Every structure is written in structure tokens, then in C-alpha cells.
Amino acid sequence: MKAELRYVWFALLLTWSACASCKGGLRVGTPQPGAAGSASTPAATGGKGGSAAEGGENSPTSGRAGAATGGNAANPRAGNQVAPRATLGEWVDVTPPAMRAAIDAVESSMRYGVQDILVDPARPSDVYAFVCYAGVWRSEDAGLTWRKVSQTKELETGRPWAAAIESNRARDASTPPKLYTMNGYGNPLGIFTSTDWGVTWTQHALQVPEGEDAYSIDVNPYDSQHLLVGFHESRGLIESTDGAQTWKSIRVPADAGVSVYAFFVDTGNAGTTRQTWLSVPQADTSSPTYRTQDAGERWTKVESFGHSHGTCQIFQQGDGVIYAGGLYGSAGNSIYRSTDHGKTWKGVADVLSTTIIGSSKHLYSTNAQAWGPGSAGLHRATRANGTDWQAVTNPPGMTDGAKRALATTDKEGRQVIVSGHWKAGIWRYVEP
Questions:
Q1: What's the whole-model pTM score?
Q2: Domain map (residue ranges) of the chain
Q3: Fold of domain 86-430
Q4: Rg over CA atoms, the chain
Q5: Sheet containing 426-430, strands listed edge to edge, beginning at the edge strand earlier in sequence
Q6: Which residues are within 8 A (CB) of 89 and not within 5 positions of it... i.e. 6 or more apart?
Q7: pLDDT per residue over 85-102, tens digit each?
């Protein structure tokens, strides 16, 4: 009898313990350090439920739009707020609430928002966003959903002003890309690199003029260790050939302007691309664009299409074709086209532009200045040579176009435009 009572008591104790564990267990979407779903456990997959398009538990149709699932650094789709269902030919605001709150929490004059946005060439559905005072975010579904991945204080509390990603399309897609960003503009903490999907970052010193900070960065499409960095309101460039470990100062002509954006010109050949660069000024109506074929030893003046203060994004189509936008182009021209790797240029359209985006279907232009001429909105080229353009509906709430934008392909093979913006967030457009 006593033995039977002991068995009954033991069974009751086990039942009570199981119930307590259920009540105190980890919730889906609340990753703990070292637990499944945390950034430190790449093998974890986290929560369940379908996507927005599938109408799963995290979809808008479930009544739980914006709900989060557990996630990890290698699988950032988990842990995101799911955006509304995408409609072909319409812009959708895909800014996650946490990113929006971080941007809105910053004092208005310092609210720089999404400063750069990159796509992994080996994983076209992988997109990275660099947000001032909010760190680095990653999407694995071509910009539909986002998760904050960075764990570096200097990026969480500073201004990742520009970023770059290695351009090797043949890289094993299971291997993380090398990422670069700078905590710049008034807070020159140097350049940061990441090789684990943007989670942890290593800080490197920059050789910058006294009192200045880095402002732009470009990576050689054939060599991820080869970088060009421009300064804010200071002439000249610096070059690194060892992945930001050491730097070399590069002089530019005296009339090349300040806040220079430097670009590698993809000549189709690794050797000549290494030495062929463009130097594009901003915030200057008179400073010309220069080109070098010998890594900055000599420069040739090629055109004047200066940018307003804010951004510069060219598009290299291939076979020597380059598009560049400008706000101060000669003879009313504001979109320029080169067919000889930037040696000569021709104005092809009078559309104010700072950002040129190219998909496999269309060429887009948008004006995203912080200061300067009025907004020109988003335009799409109707001819392959970029001579005719038509206005496209702007993303809602995007007052002056895209700060930085990209074209990529989602996992269903659709062409997608993902756009970041000053003081705002991220928008997404699926081409019809």
C-alpha cells in the first residue's frame, strides 16, 4: 500500500513539473542567448507559419500581420515582421516596425534613415540594409521581410553611411559574402568588415584627412580586397588592396570638387578594371567628372554632371555602357550615357537624377537629394538606349525618390526593385 502511494505521489509530481515547464517555456519569436532562434545559433530555424503570400499564421490574412517568428543570423527570414502581400506594379512599404521605430526615435535633423542597400550577387534574394542608429538588417526573400542582424555597438549607435559587398557571382552561395561599411559623417570610426552575414564586424582604421570622414566606398568587381573610399568635403581618395588593412592616398585634380564618389569601371577585364576609375563630385555645379586608366596617376576630364548633396549611384550595363545621373548637367541634360567605359558621355534625357537602377527589364532613375533642386520622382526608360522616360508612381511617403536602390530577383524569378530612403524606410516593387 505504501509503495502504491509513493507511485501515485511521484506521478503527480511529474505532471506538475511538465505543466510548469509549458508555462515557463521559450516563446516563438523571443530568442534567448544561445537558444534556438538566436543569432548565435546558425543551425536553428525558429518558428513556423506561412509567408504573407501563403496566408500562414504571420500573414495579413491571419489577423496576425507583423507577428514575429524565431530566427537566426543564417536564416533572417525568421524573426521578421511580414509585410503586406505584394501587388505587381505597385510599391509596398516593407519597413519592419522595429526599424521604423528606431528611425523615428532619432531627432529630426539627424534622421538619416536607410543610407545604403546591397544585394548578394551569389544569392540574389539576399538583401542588406544599412540604417543610421539602427544597425544592419538582412532579408532573404528579396526585401519582403527583414531582420536586424548586426551585433556591433558602433553600428547600432552610429551612422553606417555607405556600404559595399563583394561582387563574385561564382562564390559558393553557402559561404557568407564579405561586407564593408563605414561609420562616417561626423563620427569617423573607420571602416568595418563582416564575413558572417552581417552579424559581427571588425573595425579597421582609415587614413583620412584631419577632421574628415569617409563618405563613399566601392569594391572592385573582380577583387573583394580592392577598395576605393572618398571623403566628405575633402579632395582626394584612398585605396586599399588588402581588404582595408592598409591604405594609399590618391590625388585628384584640384577642380575635381569635394565629397568625391569613386567608382571602378568594369571594363570586362580584371587587369584594366583594377586601374580604371571614375571620380564624380557632389554638391557642385562646376566640378567635372574625371577618369583614370592608371590607378590615379593621371586623370582625364570627361564630363560635368555634378550631384546634389546626398547620393550618387551609377549603373554599368556591360559592354562599355554606363549610365550616370546628375542635377547640374550641361545644356539641360541630367542623365548621361557612355558607350566606351566612361571615356566619352552624351546627355540622353532631361530628368533630374541621383540614382540609376537597372533590372533585366527596365532602366530606372530617381532623384534623392537631401538639398538641391526639387523632387523629380521615379522614372522608367521606355527605350533601351535611355533616351525616353516616363514617370512611375512614387512609393507612398517617399518624398524625393530613392536614397539607394537595387534590382534583384526573388525566388520565384520575378524582377524586384528594393529602395531605401532618407528619414523613412524601405519600399519594394515587383515588376509586372
A1: 0.78
A2: 86-430
A3: Methylamine Dehydrogenase; Chain H (2.130.10)
A4: 24
A5: 91-93, 426-430, 415-420, 404-409
A6: 429, 430, 431, 432
A7: 667 888 889 999 999 999
